[in-house]
Amino acid sequence: MSDTFDMKEVDGIVYEIEARKVTKGGERIDIGANPSTENQDEGGDLDDKVEQELDIVVAFRLHDMEMKAPQRKSHYIPHIKAYMKKVVEALKAKGTDEETIKAFQTGAQAYVKKIIANITDYDFYIGESQDFDGMHVLLNYREDGITPYFTIWKHGLTEMKV
User: 114: closest CA among 17, 13, 6, 9?
Assistant: First the structure.
């Protein structure tokens, strides 16, 4: 994730990042030449495919896992158990104090219960590396049913300066 996106910390465990739809494609490329008479009807566009995508998906090259609703729970529960173990191991390797680790485990367990209770509301994304054992980025919509937001695990991020 990047600090260019507005991140809201929730319960000290996850970040929620609101996404916006962006338009990809449909660019009109003008190279300064006169349009040919045979191409005038088409307007001379080179790329007429216009797609709406979420800015975070585009910026971080996320891939939709395209799981059907019945698959979500059976996939997510074993994944999140293994993933949380990896996060705890990484926290210990960084020298994080036991109190912080315990707080993470307690908070994460409560937040996972919220996710499982509403699992059919989520879409699952993974990064460009397609590492299924890594963090799954969760997409949901606010109560208005229009505003998309992503949920990512706070302790699963590594800070990098670029």
Answer: 13
